[in-house]
Amino acid sequence: MLLGSRDPDRGMAAVHSLRALHPGAEHRVAYLKIDVSSDESVRAAREAVAASLPGDGAALYGVVNNAGIGLGSHDMAQVVNVNTLGVKRVCDAFLPLLGNGGRLVNVSSASAPRFVSGCSAARQAFFQDAGIEWPALQALIDEVVALGDDTAGFEKLGLEPHNPYGFSKACVTLYTLLLAREHPHLVINACTPGYIETDLTRPAAKSRGVSPADMGMKPPEHGTVAIMHLLFGAPHGSGHYYGSDARRSPLDRYRAPGSPEYTGD
Ligand SMILES: NC(=O)c1ccc[n+]([C@@H]2O[C@H](COP(=O)([O-])OP(=O)(O)OC[C@H]3O[C@@H](n4cnc5c(N)ncnc54)[C@H](OP(=O)(O)O)[C@@H]3O)[C@@H](O)[C@H]2O)c1
Predict the structure, then answer these.
(1) What is the rounded average pLDDT of the residues 43-68?
(2) Model pLDDT, residue 23
(3) Which CATH architecture describes the domain 60-242?
(4) How far does residue 131's CA lie from ligand 1's centre (Å)?
(5) Residue of the nearest CA to atom 20 in ligand 1?
(6) What is the pTM of this model?
(7) CA of 199 to the centre of ligand 1 (A)
(8) Domain boundaries, the chain
(9) I want to staple 158 with a disulfide (CB 3.0 to 4.6 A). Which of 84, 123, 191, 261 is the partner?
(10) How far is ligand 1, taken at its centre, from the CA of residue 48, in Å?
């Protein structure tokens, strides 16, 4: 397993902690330097991985796009560059290295269906269109990034204003549909990890003066359930979005974990 991180010290610390948890299997995890916000870094990471494959038709088993920023942030360009365009950079670079039946898991968020539920009817349809083409999605991203603080501009586009995180995750969930259509030999899905106590979410509890558990956050190991299912389990094919309970969820509204699975298209 290759553990990608932009910061070698933090990445190696994570590798060492995994190795310590699995004595005897230390050789099974290694560090990969990658900054998903940089074309150059993703290209270098891809070259390093491609060069490390034995060359006898060996392929990668799967890729998990987990990097994410921006809960509570208002810098649309930065958030989209990591959460949406970062996923595209990694997919463009690494999907060709996956073999038949290879897995791709895009870690999106329940903020995506929540965001979509607040959009106009036409925009809701856009965010659920399995026939979406990348230029249409890129054009929307470009328009939105150019809007800055223009609230009326968001409304004209049928979008909830000032929610870069929700927008970026709605885009990545939609991009997952496109990827699944374009790569029928792969198993490609998106999910939310759930509301999990991490560096991303802890500040929200701190600012309210309560504990992460008081806010409903679960411990980090709960955040792997859907990801592990989509990576190693038997999901319902490709091009779907899963809740943190590893069951399908709709793209246009929140489904609470433990409630009935979504069975639509
Ligand atoms: N926690 C939740 O409740 C929750 C809910 C829904 C979705 N998610 C999603 O779950 C994923 C993991 O988030 P988390 O909660 O575990 O937050 P986290 O602890 O902040 O982890 C996010 C990771 O992304 C990395 N990252 C950020 N920018 C990057 C870049 N340009 N290149 C490479 N790596 C980068 C960070 O690396 P550094 O260590 O270098 O900062 C960090 O390790 C994210 O996609 C997030 O949106 C989380």
Answers:
(1) 93
(2) 93
(3) 3-Layer(aba) Sandwich (3.40)
(4) 29
(5) 200
(6) 0.97
(7) 8
(8) 60-242
(9) 123
(10) 23
If you measure from the C-alpha of residue 265 to the centroid of ligand 1, how many angstroms do you get, rounded to a whole number?
Answer: 29
Mean pLDDT of all residues in 188-197: 98
Please provide the DSSP assignment of the chain as one string.
Answer: -EEEESSHHHHHHHHHHHHHHSTT-GGG-EEEE--TT-HHHHHHHHHHHHHHS-SSS--EEEEEE-----TT---HHHHHHHHTHHHHHHHHHHGGGEEEEEEEEEE--THHHHHHHTS-HHHHHHTT-TT--HHHHHHHHHHHHHHTT-HHHHHHTT--SS-HHHHHHHHHHHHHHHHHHH-TTSEEEEE---SB-STTTHHHHHHHTS-TTTTTPBPGGGGGHHHHHHHHS--SSSSEEE-TTSSB--SSS---TTSPPP---
